[in-house]
């Protein structure tokens, strides 16, 4: 497969028509149709369902779109690293992480880096640990910020000097908002929203004493913002980390910590044996400095 052909394929997937993609790419429609037919023959798979008004992707086509996007992104990332000026810090650094107040350490390092070297560009990807580690393993991210518990066997890491607290997000008019903390018994029978991350579920199962079936989990989430809207609209209770959603006096939501208290640490990670660009190596040093500085406070 040629990169050019993959880019053609992605354009068709986006435009949902051969004619629209051909116009966008400034090539003839017969040429583009021939390229796609040859791609399907090369792969031995049908990639498109050709309708009267638009083209849709088959299951194989959707898989190829996902992989093609990853391939193109990795090529662009590699080209950016190779073009970086050796005499000046420049280039792109890709960081993935979950929603956590601990990301402020990374934000401070980014701020320092761009103040000292304005040509540096940063790209942030938000996702749970499974999303982030998948992109780390594929080389699409340089660094990740992972919330415990996480399997760290494939990564080198810095343990960040911060802790996140597990608790329950609820409406301020909820009866549980009057409590200082929330026990497993308090949630019994309540509609609960929980992270869909398996390791997190295991951690919460430990808090529940292995009796996770006692919870009425009605919805799962991977990032908290949309889940917080369900809490606000439907009086659900979201098991989550503190500091992600605003719960001050002006908010309609409140956060109460779990009892027994459940805290988790964070790690700034990268693939083992990774060869860093000059810019990435420099940024890693900044994160280490910021972590030491906060530890000493």
From TrEMBL:
InterPro entries: HTH-type_LysR_regulators, LysR_HTH_N, LysR_subst-bd, WH-like_DNA-bd_sf, WH_DNA-bd_sf. PROSITE patterns: HTH_LYSR. One of its GO terms (cellular component) is cytosol. Residues 1-58 form the HTH lysR-type domain. Gene3D superfamilies: 3.40.190.290, Winged helix-like DNA-binding domain superfamily/Winged helix DNA-binding domain. GO terms for molecular function: DNA binding; DNA-binding transcription factor activity. Keywords: DNA-binding, Transcription, Transcription regulation. Belongs to the LysR transcriptional regulatory family. This is Transcription regulator hth lysr. It comes from Trichococcus shcherbakoviae.
């Amino acid at each position: 497969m040629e990169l050019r052909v993959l880019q053609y394929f992605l354009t068709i997937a986006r435009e949902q028509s051969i004619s629209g993609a051909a116009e966008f790419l400034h090539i003839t429609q017969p040429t583009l149709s021939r390229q796609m037919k040859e791609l399907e023959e090369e792969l031995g798979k049908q990639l498109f369902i050709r309708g009267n008004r638009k083209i849709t992707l088959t299951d194989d086509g959707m898989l190829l779109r996902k992989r093609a996007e990853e391939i193109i992104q990795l090529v662009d990332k590699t080209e950016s690293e190779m073009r970086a000026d050796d005499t000046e810090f420049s280039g792109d650094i890709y960081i993935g992480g979950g929603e956590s107040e601990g990301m402020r350490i990374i934000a401070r390092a980014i701020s320092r880096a761009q103040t000292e070297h304005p040509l540096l560009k940063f790209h942030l990807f938000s996702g749970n640990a499974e999303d982030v580690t998948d992109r780390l393993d594929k080389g699409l991210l340089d660094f990740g910020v992972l919330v415990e518990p996480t399997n760290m066997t494939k990564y080198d890491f810095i343990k960040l000097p911060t802790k996140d607290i597990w608790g329950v997000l609820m409406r301020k008019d909820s009866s549980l908002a009057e409590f200082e903390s929330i026990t497993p018994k308090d949630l019994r029978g309540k509609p609960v929203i929980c992270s869909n991350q398996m390791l997190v579920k295991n951690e919460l199962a430990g808090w529940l004493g292995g009796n996770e079936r006692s919870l009425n989990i009605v919805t799962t989430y991977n990032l908290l913002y949309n889940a917080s809207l369900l809490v606000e609209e439907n009086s659900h209770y979201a098991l989550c980390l503190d500091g992600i959603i605003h719960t001050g006096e002006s908010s309609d939501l409140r956060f109460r910590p779990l009892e027994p208290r459940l805290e988790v640490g964070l790690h700034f990670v990268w693939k083992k044996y990774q060869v860093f660009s000059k810019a990435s190596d420099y940024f890693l040093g900044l994160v280490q400095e910021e972590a030491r500085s906060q530890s000493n406070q």
